[in-house]
Amino acid sequence: MTDNNTLASRLYPTRIDIPAEARVQIVVILNQSLAATMDLKTQTKQAHWNVKGTDFYQLHELFDEMADELEEYVDMVAERVTALGGYALGTARAAASNSILPEYPFDILEGKEHVTALADRFALYAKHIRDAIAKTDDLGDADTADLYTEISRTIDKRLWFLEAHLQVSEIKGENGKSGTTTTQKSAFVR
Q1: Which H or E run contains 161?
Q2: SS3 of 100, please?
Q3: For 50-63, how does the pLDDT look when each residue is reduced to its tens digit (9 = 90+)?
Q4: Which of 116, 151, 166, 184 is the most exposed, having the fewest neighbouring CB atoms within 10 Å of its CB?
């Protein structure tokens, strides 16, 4: 049986004209993205299944849509790995051991807590994806960089949707004028 480290550096024959040395590095990056994408998808489903509160239906539906999008990206990333002659390391165990994301908190129920937890993770994932755009472009693989760019646009949009639930809300001051207050309490402020 071959371990994941050996598979990460092993390629099968392909006629793609990207040098093998570059493809090995790109496949490693893609497999890390595959792990993180699978992890983020399951964490989003965790929120979908367990959200409670006055915004239940809205958040339940939003989280399900987000998980479905991530499932599409899992497939896109895994197929790019194999197109480059690599081995897609896409099991749940591989995702758990190779993900860049922290574990999802199991003890939360309220919608805002789930939104905060997901926003923190989507922000980390978005940074990872942007780093992958630059790295794969530097390695001469514009197609993989483009794949990452497509993912990045959607992830940034979804992060915006999540943060919109947490950010500024209008309040009335004592003088009757509108003011703002920030309600976001994230450890991942950029």
Answers
A1: helix 142-164
A2: coil
A3: 999 999 999 999 99
A4: 184
